[in-house]
Amino acid sequence: MKRFASFSAISLFLFLSGMLIVCVYGEVDKTSTVTRGINGDTFDIFTGERIRLADVDAPENYESGYSQAKDYLASLVDGKTVYLDVDDVYTYDYSGTGDRLVCVVYVDYDSMQLMNVNEALLDGGYAEISNYDNEFNPYLWSLLVPKDGDSESTTDTGNDYVTVGVAVFAIIFAIAVFVMINRRGRR
Known about the structure:
The protein is an alpha+beta fold. It has helices spanning about 1-25, 65-75, 115-125, 160-185; strands spanning about 30-35, 40-45, 50-55, 55, 80-85, 100-110, 115, 130, 145. The chain folds into 2 domains: about 1-25 and about 160-185; about 25-155, CATH 2.40.50.90.
């Protein structure tokens, strides 16, 4: 029984580690090119969709700092390819007009890393954290994250972390069950 408990503990640890990778590094649900900035936390992409940066709040057009936040976001994303981690809880921002995809947005930083645009706005002082009830935790974000080998793809590459975590858990659990059954059969 101790071995079963050990295998279960290791399996749980590996599964939770895989989930932590997803929480910190996110996933790429959609890739597109930015066509137009709207304000300091919203922009449009080539597909015609409007993107609202998750968990950040930049000044509105009647507030101090609006132009600076809008210009800074534009400098980060205008005309560039963006990698979008779309919120799995709400998908759309229903507190606004209901037509904006809620996302953590990444852009190429260099050949090895992506930059988290949401975090860049926070780090630069152009926005404040507004931690909504969604899948994201802005307190765990890093400005730079390693590129996935397939980040240029338009497919959902982030779910690979979940798939690997579940597969490792299932394999170790199956081995533990097999060992337990064989041990009991020998008695």
